[in-house]
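Entry 12.
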Amino acid sequence: MTVKLNMDTSSGAIITSDTSGILDIQSAGTTKMTIGSTIDIQGNELVLDADADTSIHASTDDQIDFKIGGNDNIELNNLGASRLLKVYKGGGDELVLQSNAPDASGNMRKIELEGEQVIFSTGASSGTSTTQRHIIDEEGQFLFGGITDELTNNGGCLQLKSRTGSEHCATFRNGHSDGGFGINFQRVDGTQVGSIAWTSSATNFNTSSDYRLKENVTYTFDATTEIKKLKPCKFNFKDESDTVEGFLAHEVSSIVPLAVTGTKDAKDSNDNPIYQSIDQSKLVPLLVKTIQELEARITALESE
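Predicted 3D structure (tokens):
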């Protein structure tokens, strides 16, 4: 049986529920929608015909909440005509959140959840397209500055690349006043082991040196003999022409092991070289102790 309601007045049609305040809409004897203080759809889904330009919208600029499975919300807050947020699924496992039109400054915004990646993009003033800026990849690495893949094997959770050769890769600024730690380094249990700190005029690169962290302290060792084993040299790096003074890391490793990181001729699983590096500040105690030993010898000779 088909029932048609034809309204010939401007009042339209009014369907009034019983005294319980609930209106049920049924199909084949099964309730598909209940209208009370809320609208509850018991079917599998609400289908809107895109070809018919169908939409769900608020009558004002107030918030619209889409609730999924209880308390999981997708919220569209105070969206004006130029700040409409589109949420849609792409060709594969992709979710895109994109502004529908440029804002007052002509900027576009887009966030893509594509496969196991999250991609952040912004657009030029033309407002017609966006450019990828940052990625959170499947390994949980945050790639800044338009990096499309990790910079190197074991590149770390946070990787940055400058956009041009004339700008900084990263800039750090004190938030409220000069002084304190700009970057703090901690071991697994949260104990600080180093920092980069700056004042209004200078920067300090610090490693932990508190006496409470140390044991087996001795002041008697032959620094002069150790210093004589070092082989200072002049060289230039293959990619640069300037001559500098320094050391070859593998020649220092047997004399001051803690000054050198890495192993001579090491390679990764793809046969790429893993280069050694050196912390020359670790040589300073040897230099100071050698100067003290030489001073003691000079004093002894002068007293003869």
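Annotation: Confidence is low (pLDDT under 50) at residues 67-84, 88-93. The CA atoms of residues 166 and 213 lie 42 Å apart.
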